[in-house]
Amino acid sequence: MKEGTDPQFHKPVSAMSITNQINDQPLPAPANQADRAVGLDALRGLAILAMALSGLIPQGGLPNWMYHAQVPPPDHVFDPSIPGLTWVDLVFPFFLFSMGVSIPLALTRRIERGAGTPSITQHVIKRGLLLGFFAVYIQHIKPYTLSQSPKTQTWFIALLGLALLFPIYMRLPKTFSSSLRIAVRSIGWIAVVILLLLLKYPDSEHSSFWIGRRDIIIVVLANVSVSGALVWLFTRHAIEFRVLVMMGLIGLRLAHDSGGWVQHVWNWSPLPSMYTLYFHQYLLIVLPGTIIGDLLHKHMQEKPELSSRPKTWPTWQVAAITFICLGMTAGVCAGLQARWLPGTSYAAIAVSLATYLLWQRRVDRWSQCTHTIFGWGVAWLILGLLLESYEGGIKKDHPTLSYYFVTTGLGIFTLVALGTCISHFDSRRLWGLAIANGQNPLLAYAGISNLLAPLVALSGLGMLLANNPDTPWLGFVGACIKTLLLALIVAMLTRRRVIWRT
User: Fold this and answer.
1) Phi, psi of 171 (to 5 degrees)
2) Residue 12 reports pLDDT greater than 90
3) What is the tens place of the pLDDT at every residue in 98-109?
4) Could you please report the per-residue DSSP string of 209-225?
């Protein structure tokens, strides 16, 4: 799945001073600060911002590893036969993995507050429907969907479309009465329906609203958010059954082209644009995430005196763990993209197993938790590397089994690195932008096309960062500046508790 690309984003002014001001403001804390996995927020935020950056990078002129492996420069024509793994290919699975980790953390709180299975099931389905609507609506209001050459009117329509989502998705103040909440939500729904009925598109076959016009990334998220949460709900006391579900998915995937009832199940869809069993293959990333979420929740439930944090560890040890985890992620990506297959696999397996065995020497509870989490990462990575040569090598599009498991392992390593580093150095402020964006992912995602692009176009800053094919790396710097601007805006809104939720 290729992340959407909207060209011509532009430059903020005094970004560093704005960053300092935003980082000085406190992050919105949950009711119980111990319930918040800050490393998870940071990972989710980095995934969202990397998704934005990957869509802003100028085409052509940069190395292959700066783009999706199957859409190489200079022509960027999709070629499903090209194997490889770039940092851009990690963005989507990292976000899926983060979703999986968050499922036990969110739903367990509901269970602890007394919610039963029917209530939680209703909540999960409602959330999936809201995400499904978001997928259709956001695609209908993107500037480059409305017009191939957006003008001033197009930019304002895009901003209006974004603004109308606030009454629907924004977390309303607790001081609002029930009737006021219903009124606000109703106004939002009526407004977006009217807008969708009025908008026209340059598509000759579908010039008005069409449910097939949807954001495929959000459609996949909507599907697996429901199926992943329901699988967790009914297997939360038995991880082995969750693994059996994964094995069943693999069986369906392998047999769907062989005819028979499996093919019928695989191909059945009441609404192909919004649901196919194909989308649920990504549970092979989400469900391992739920296992990590269970481990994190169990650790956060322990008494503080029993749950030693890594800030008591020697700094060199924290630095070593962080370096190994991030180095493994970068090294595996580089090796698989360059097709250094035997060396990459041997080195990755040796380093990960050695780190896992050496880590056992620490006996505090935090070490035991992160050691177990790291062990799951090692297991998924090795499985993915064993499958690498199957299906013609690792690929994001169309995703191979190796892709699911390798990216899951690398996602776990990155989560361990972020969680350990942030906890040891108490560096929430340093990671403030990533954390704030990770706490507000829907708004950050919508802001890529419907906030950042219109603002910089209408402000006249576009010409300052116009892409020059002769200086592609300057174009990349410009893309980084644009991504920073988005991060600053979303962080500022998050710190003012303007947060979207489904």
Assistant:
1) -70, 110
2) no
3) 999 999 999 999
4) --TT---HHHHHHHHHH
